[in-house]
Amino acid sequence: MMALSELKGLGKARLDTLNKAGIRTMADLLLTLPVRYQDTSVDTPIEKIVPGSEVCVSGFPKNDPRLSRFHGMTSVTLRLCDETGGVPVVWYNQPWLQTQIHKEDRLTLYGRVDRDKQGRVRMASPLIVKERGILPVYRALSGIPPKTMRELIRQALSQIEDCCPETLPDILRLKYHLCERNFALRQAHFPETKENLAIALRRISFEGMLLYQAAAAAVRGERAKGIQMVVAEDGEEAYFRALPFPPTNAQRRVLAEIANDLRSPMAMGRMVQGDVGCGKTALAFGAMFLSARAGYQSTLMAPTEILARQHYESAQSMLSPLGIRCGLLIGGMKAKERREALESIASGAWRVVIGTHALISEGVNYENLGLVITDEQHRFGVRQRRLLSRKAKENEPAPNELVMSATPIPRSLALVLYGDLDLSVVDELPPGRTPVKTRIVPEDKRDGLYNFIRSEANQGRQTYIVCPLVEESEAIDAKSAQETYAELCTGPLSDLRLGLTYGDQEPEEKADTIHRFSSGEIDVLVSTTVIEVGVNVPSATVMVIENADRFGLSQLHQLRGRVGRGARESWCFLMAAPNERLKSLCETSDGFKIAQKDLELRGPGDFLGTRQHGDTLLPGMALGADVQLLEETSNCLKWLRSPGYEEEWEQVKQSAHAAFARVMDEVAMN
Q1: Could you tell me which residues come within 8 angstroms of residue 513 by beta carbon, excluding any fewer than 6 positions away?
Q2: CB burial readout 266-284, b (16+ within 10 A) else e
Q3: Closest Cα to residue 414, out of 270, 584, 222?
Q4: How far is 368 from 238, CA to CA, in rounded Å?
Q5: CA–CA dist 346, 33 (Å, integer)
Q6: Of 670, 668, 661, nearest to 382 (Cα)?
C-alpha cells in the first residue's frame, strides 16, 4: 500500500499541511470529502436566476471590464448578457481580470447570486468556468490549491481497494439499499452523474450516522460506577417550596429523573434540553441543591463569562438563602482573588462552584465533587465534559454528569448526537410569558423601524440590533456591527444612547458594555451574536436582526429569546426579503417546531452549522443526510442489536471504533 508521502505533487510543506489538518494516511485523504459541488454541466438563463442560488451562466460581456480602486481595494465590474437578459458582475481584489476578459469572448461563470446594498441582483466574485461537470470543492488548505487537491485525490483513488475496506455487513447493505463503500467514495469525489452522487452520499451519510451512534452506544454502555447519593424522598419538593414561583409539571418530571439518577450506583449521564425560558437553570440549581444536601460539591461550567456571572448571581439569590455557599471562578481573575477561590473550592467551603473553562484548568481541586453540569452543551465537546468530570479525586467513583442545552434539537437528531446520554426534554413554558411578535421588515420600511425604536426608548424600553459580521467586508454583502454602530451614532438614532459589543472585544470593555445595557444606561445595543446566550435584560423589548437570511432558524429563535423576558409586549424584526424559512419563524414561537423545520429545510449538517465552523460532524453529513436518514439509522441500530445479528453487530462496532476512536472525545456541535 502506498504511503501518503509517495503521491506526486506532495512535497514536505504540503504533507505537513495535510498532517496538521488530520490527514495522515491515504485513507484519511480519501475520507476527506468535498464540502460542496459546483454544477457547471448546465447553464441557467439569466432571466431565471434568483438571489440565494448558485448558478452557472454563459454569455458575452456588454462592455469591457472596468477597474475601480477604493480604500486600498479594487473591483472589476461588467455586465454579462445572454439572449434572455443581463446581470451585473463584480470581482473584488482581482485587478488582473480587467486585462484577461474581453467583450468579444464568450464567458461562462459559476457563483452565488445575491443583492448589492441597493437591493439590485448581481453576481459577486464568481469563478470563470474552465471545466464542465459536477466538480468537487474541498475545504481550503493553505498552500494546496483546489486543482492540486483534486489531483491528489485522483491518485489516491488508485489505492482505494487496499486502504478503504468495506465497513458494513452485506446483509445490512442489502436491507437498506446501500451501494458498496468504494463506489460511494469514487462517486463522491468525482461524480459521473447527479444520480450517482445522490446514491454515494446516501451511503456515506448512512455509514457516518450509524457508526457514530454505535460508538456513542459503546461509550454509554461503559458508563462507570458513580457517586451514589442519599437523596431524601422529599428532596425535590423541599427545593420547589423554596422557589419564588411554582414549578411546571415538566420541571417536576425532569428533576425527579435527575434525583433518581443521583440515587443510582451508576454515574448519571443526562442531557436536559428545553426551549428559551422553560426553566432549565432552575433545574440545574435543583440538582445542585440535592447534591449539597447529600454532602457533595457541584460545579457548573458555562461557555462565556457573561453567562457564568449571570448564573452565579442567580445561584446567590436562589441557593444562598438555603444555606448553600456559592463561588465564581473565571479566567483573568487577579492572583489574590483566584488563590482565595481555589482555597474555597479545595476546602469545600464553596458547595456550588460556577465558572467558565477556568474550572478545568490546572490547580483546581475539589474536596468531594459529586455533580458536574455544563450549560449550553453545543459549545462544549465530550472531551471538555470529561475533563471536568476528572476533577474528582483519583480512585473515587465518577461524579454525576448533567448537560444543559437551550438550543432546541429534534429528538431524532439529539439521540444521534448525544447517544452517550439519557435525554430529558422540558417541553412546557411557565405561565404568563408573552410571546414575542415577529415580523419580516423590508429595506424600504427601515425609517419606520427606527421611529419605533425611538418611541420605545422614550418609554424606557431597550433594543438589540444584531449583525452577522464584526467588520465591513467587500467579499460578503452583509451589515457589520461596527459599520451599523457608526451609521446610527451619526444618523437616525444619534439622539439615543448607543453601545457596541462583539466577540473579540476586550473582556473588560465587553463586560462594561453589557452591564451598562443591563442597568439601562444604553438604549440600543449593536452587537454580533455574542448576546445569543447569557444576557437577561427584562426591559429590552425590541430585537432587530440584520441580514436575517444569513442565520439558521434555531439561531434566530435563540436571538429572539433575548426579548420578551419582562411583562411588556416585545418585538423581533427580521431585516430580509421574505422566504419560507423566515415566514415559519413568524408563525410559531415553539423552538422544537422551529428546529424541526430548520432540520427539514437545511439538513443536519447545515442545521448544526458545520459548514460554517470547520469539519463536518459526521462524514458526508452536511451533504447527504436528511431527516428520514436519521430515523433509518436509528432503526438500523436497534435491528443490529436484536437477537440473531451478533456477528453483524460486532462488525459494525469494530468499524465504529476504527472510525471514531481518534476523535470521539472531540465530537461537539461547535
Answers
A1: 499, 500, 501, 505, 522, 525
A2: ebbbbbbbbbbbbbbbbbb
A3: 270
A4: 23
A5: 47
A6: 668
Quote the cell numbers at residue 657. 471504533
pLDDT digits (tens, 9 = 90+) for 233-276: 889 999 999 988 899 999 999 999 999 999 999 889 888 888 77
Three-state DSSP class for residue 573? strand
Spatial distance between the Cα atoms of 403 and 364, rounded to a whole number of angstroms? 20
* Cα(667)–Cα(292) distance, integer angstroms: 31
Q: Are 619 and 204 in contact (CB under 8 A)?
A: yes
Q: What angle do CA 333, 386, 277 make, to 5 degrees?
A: 70
CA gap 293, 323 in Å, rounded: 10
Can you name the residues that pair with 38 across neighbouring β-strands?
135
Residue 644 makes CB contacts below 8 A (sequence gap 6+) with none
Residue pointed to by grid coordinates 456559592: 326
Residue 171 makes CB contacts below 8 A (sequence gap 6+) with: 645, 648
Task: Supply 567's cell numbers.
Answer: 411583562
* Number of CB atoms found within 10 A of residue 590's CB: 16
- 224-229-234 Cα angle (round to 5): 140
Cα 353-390-274 angle, rounded to 5 deg:
60
- Report which of 553, 592, 218, 278 is spatially closest to residue 404, judged by C-alpha positions: 278
Q: In what order do the strands lie in the sheet with 422-426?
A: 326-329, 352-355, 297-301, 369-374, 400-405, 269-274, 422-426
Q: What's the CA gap between 595 and 179, in Å, rounded? A: 31
Complete domains list, the chain, with CATH: 1-35+140-164 (1.10.150), 42-128 (2.40.50.140), 235-263+278-405 (3.40.50.300), 437-588 (3.40.50.300)
Q: State pLDDT tens for residues 624-662.
A: 456 677 778 888 988 998 999 999 999 999 998 888 765
Task: List, in sequence order, every beta strand (DSSP E) within 461-606.
Answer: 462-466, 498-501, 524-527, 540-545, 571-575
Phi, psi at 108, each rounded to 5°: -115, 125
Task: Give Cα separations from 92 to 73, 322, 333, 476, 648 (angstroms).
Answer: 7, 62, 44, 10, 54
Residue in the structure block whose three cell numbers are 457516518: 208
Please give the Cα distance from 235 to 544 (Å, whole number).
43
Residue (of 139, 60, 124) closest to 92 by Cα position? 124
Give residue for cell 501518503.
4
Which among 445, 470, 476 is positioned nearest to 526, based on CA atoms?
A: 470
Check: CB of residue 278 under 8 Å from CB of residue 426: yes
Dist CA 56 CA 62 (whole Å): 18
Contact (Cβ atoms closer than 8 angstroms) between residue 625 and residue 209: yes
CA angle 628, 601, 202 (to 5 degrees): 40
* Per-residue cell: 436: 414575542
pTM over 0.70: no
C-alpha dist (Å) from residue 39 to 50, 188, 341, 583: 16, 13, 58, 29
The number of angstroms, rounded, from the C-alpha of 364 to the middle of its chain's C-alpha atoms is 29
* CA nearest neighbour of 552 among 478, 625, 605, 481: 605
**641 CB-contact burial (10 Å; exposed 0-12 / middle 13-18 / buried 19+):** middle
In this structure, the number of other CB atoms found within 10 A of the CB of residue 533 comes to 23
| Residue keyed to cell 473582556 | 507
Pairwise CA distance, residues 613 & 611, whole Å = 6
pLDDT tens-digit profile of 202-229?
999 899 888 888 887 776 665 567 889 9
